[in-house]
Amino acid sequence: MHLLVTGASGLLGLNLSLLAIREGYTVTGLVHSHGLSGVPFQQVQVDLTQEQEALLAIQTAKPDAIIHCAAQANLNLAEQDPQLAQRLNAEIPGFLARTAKQHQIPLIHISTDAVFDGERGNYVEDDPVRPSSVYAKTKLAGEGAVLANNPDALVARVVFYGWSLSGRRSLGEFFFNNLKEGTPINGFTDTFFSPLYVEDLSKVLLDMLTSGLKGIYHVVSPESVSKYEFGVRLADRFGFDPGLISPIQSLEINRGASRSLNLSLKPDKVQKALGITLPTIDAGLAQFYRRWQQGYPRQLQSYASYEQ
């Protein structure tokens, strides 16, 4: 199967593309400002905001499926330029969904846990959504645009961490980088989430694709923790000093864009559909640690292209 992966230099896009290659897929990765060097899949540099350019890339690749990972995921940048966030997070997904339907190929659209208000947590797919930030509002609009243009599309609400091209993209890397250097940091005790390790998430997305699922699914860990607890567990796994993490409440710090507090989600629907149990937090951190031991972060960073 030939996959077209957008955002192929991003945290999810790159890990997903590499896993797909190892699993025997053919991959064409679309990148924009961050080119790649030496990756084991074809990459095409495309500005997705230019629809004719994007359409030509899709028609040339002739993929069997599209996995749309690209987005404006920086919450503060989305607040500063809501029009661009709307274009990237809502309008482009609608265009891709329409294109996939016209070419009769499956589409997975990556969404976010942030579509909920975070007031109670343990959300299921049918719970009312109430996003609070520009980022979250545009991602929710993207879900609507995808399903309106292509009811057979699959929308995956996710939250994840892992090793990235820059080494500075995920919460796991934030804790790792600072704890490794002995730098004191904060961990929020009132902010809860259900993160999956990115390669585990990638494997589940491929399984969902081959199973022909459609509609909205929460693809997250069945366990939720505070971000402070996540940092402490990561410290314990790597043998770092958890005392470097100060437990504080998020309201004590001005972080710019509004952030919901309890974004724990329930993945029961996808677990039942695939007949699996998704990995726990500790299982994901064990894989995160094992890949570090194997030199995977250095491998990813070697793909960075500095001829930009």
Please tag this protein with its features.
308 residues; alpha/beta; Rossmann fold; two-stranded parallel ribbon; 13 strands; 41% helix; globular
Helix segment count? Answer: 11
Q: Give me the CATH architecture, please.
A: 3-Layer(aba) Sandwich
Strand order of the largest sheet: 3-2-1-4-5-6-11
Which consecutive residue ranges, at least 5 long each, have pLDDT under 50?
Answer: none
**What's the Cα radius of gyration?**
18 Å
- Output the structural class: alpha/beta
Q: How helix-rich are the residues, as a percent range?
A: 40-55%
Order of helices and strands: EHEEHEHHEHEEHEEEHEEHEHHH
Oligomer: single chain
The total count of strands amounts to: 13
User: What fraction of the residues are assigned to beta strands by DSSP?
Assistant: 15-25%
Summed up, the domain count is 1
For the largest beta-sheet, the strand count, sense and barrel status come to: 7 strands, parallel
CATH class: Alpha Beta
Reported by name, the CATH topology is: Rossmann fold
- Measured between the Cα atoms of the first and last residue, the distance is 31 Å
What spatial form do the alpha-carbon principal axes imply? globular
CATH-assigned homologous superfamily: NAD(P)-binding Rossmann-like Domain
Mean pLDDT across all amino acids: 95
